[in-house]
Amino acid sequence: MQSTDQASYFLKLFARGRYVSSRSIARRESNAVDKQQRHEERERFAVAAIAFCINNDQEFRNHFMNVIGESQRIAVARLEVEPKHWGDLVVVGDKIVVVLEFKLKALLGEHQDPTKSRFETSGYGAEIIREYGKGYQLRYVIVGIDIPQDKTKTGLPYRGLRWKEFIVKDRKESSLEHDLFDCLGVLGAPIFLTRGMKMKTLTSEVDGAMAVYKMLTAIAEDLSTKADSSTDSVGLEIRASGPTTARAKLLNEVVAPKRRALGWIGYELIDNNLRLSVWFYCSEASTKKVRQRLRSLAPGHGEIVDDGNSVGLQALAAKNDDHPTWFNRVLQSVAGDRA
Fold first, then answer.
1. Cβ atoms 263, 27 nearer than 8 A
2. Predicted model pTM
């Protein structure tokens, strides 16, 4: 399920056609009125994508069941996606039921944590035993949290599995697996973005990252910034407050940010391509003006992008020989000729 331009179909579906990255997801959730609901929606989508792959890719199905079943072979009779509030994914076999809880950079609540007493008295453990306690071997698995294998006082076996346990090591990923893992990497399991990374090249990559920070800091020396990077981006957040330089004043007037951040400048890895990116966190009233000013550079200078919370310009890094000039021209176009 891999598109011709190497973009994850799952990510495209999650974003409904909009631009999406770890950075944009984090920003969207931080700006949301109900942050917890947004995060739960992201986890719910990830679980649905995993269930889809189990049902439609035999290689992934076998791989997934081997990981969660350890040495025990699980013949799947049916899958239930979030059948109740106490389980994200339930794998029902002939004699065994595995209830899985998935975590993407989130903590376990006491009602979800098998090491806590509430889990057995009024939490997930009590509900699982009530639903499947008769006629099935039970197992509770938390994916994304490292918890040693054990049993609750009532005898419910449990364990935590880190996301890295699901990385395919002994064969080539199927196209559907590749698409899923790329998606999970952006949604909150960054270990998938490092698969295939050769440690021998890490030193040169770190040197490169430090050089990038130096360059970006020099470009934005008249602006207030702070480091803001993620698993698929390296850059600086541009703050709305700070120096009262000419360019800072003009950018604030044009962008009119709703919060303390004015924008972002840096590099993003999108669809396996490194891109130069500048984002402006516009107010609703200023979005049109920012688009118009960016349009004066595009398409020759890049592509205008929109992640639902901000408007920006991107260009392939490999096709631009002078990155500092590119970044400066984008900032200049939005600030205006007087900057």
1. no
2. 0.74
- Rounded to whole angstroms, how far apart are CA atoms 241 and 180? 40
| Residues 41-60: tens digit of each pLDDT | 899 999 999 999 999 999 99
- Can you give 202-259 as a three-state secondary structure string? HHHHHHHHHHHHHHHHHHCCCCCEEECCECCEEEEEEECCCCCCHHHHHHHHHHCCCC
Q: Could you confirm whether domain 197-335 is CATH 3.30.1460?
A: yes
Contact 60, 174 (CB under 8 A): yes
pLDDT for position 110: 93
Q: What is the 3 state secondary structure string of 186-217?
A: HHCCHHHHHCCCCHHHHHHHHHHHHHHHHHHH
- Tracing tokens 């703050």 back to the chain, one arrives at 239
Say if residues 123 and 158 touch (Cβ distance below 8 Å): no
230 beta partners: 233
Smallest CA-to-CA distance from 115 within 146, 71, 75, 90 is with 146
Q: Where are the domains of the chain?
A: 9-193, 197-335
